[in-house]
Amino acid sequence: MLTYPEIDPVAFQVFGLKVHWYGLMYLVAFTVAYWLGRRRASLPGSTWTAEAVSDLIFYAALGIVIGGRLGYMLFYGMALLLDNPLNLFKVWQGGMSFHGGLLGSACGMFWVARQHNKTMSEIMDFAAPIAALGLGFGRIGNFIGGELYGRVTTVPWGMVFPRGGLEPRHPSQLYEAFLEGLVLFVVLWWFSAKPRPRLSVTGLFILLYGVFRITVEFFREPDAHLSFIFADWVTMGQLLSLPMVLGGALMMGYAYQRDRRMKG
Prior knowledge:
The chain has helices at residues 21-41, 50-75, 78-83, 98-115, 120-144, 172-191, 200-217, 236-263; strands at residues 10-14, 17-20. With 264 residues, it is mostly helical.
């Protein structure tokens, strides 16, 4: 069993305002995304300007934060929302949904597409590779906060989390940081390094995230107020990710089929 490195979730305070590590991880994620976006925009043949990259990161980040919070309350915290609608704004208590953030970022990208005369497929294919590392940083923030921990386990690397009782559990936040962050980024960056059919990069992102999320959910402790959705093993995260696997596969199939028609 490994010792969980208990870190104060509050990184520092400014004039009495507590700045949490989880929030800092979002800031790091957006900063890295901006740097990667500028790097991709500087490649030969790119049609992206520095202004377009800045707008993309800003509006996508805004959509992620708003959509992520709304998605969490609708998918996982409806009871809290109905009990007190003001719980929606208590972001310092944690609670962000990837699936809600994905929808929110799509709204932000739609706005950027209109402002810079680009298609949504062009925007999404550009954004997909640079978004992956940000997901990893978010999961590291979950780990530091000791939240979203895994199920009870006997594996040697199990950890006792402060909020998880006395039994060792899977550090599932780190599993997600590795798969949904590092591995997803490496695969997408490599895949998009060469010309690919339009929407294929986005499709691969959606497909792989869904597969990775469904896999890690088998090790992650279900939300206490939801438990299993049905069959005593299907979680809300898996239920929301299954359409991503199917949709991503269909998107890739469509992208390559359309590319063959255009070349034929």
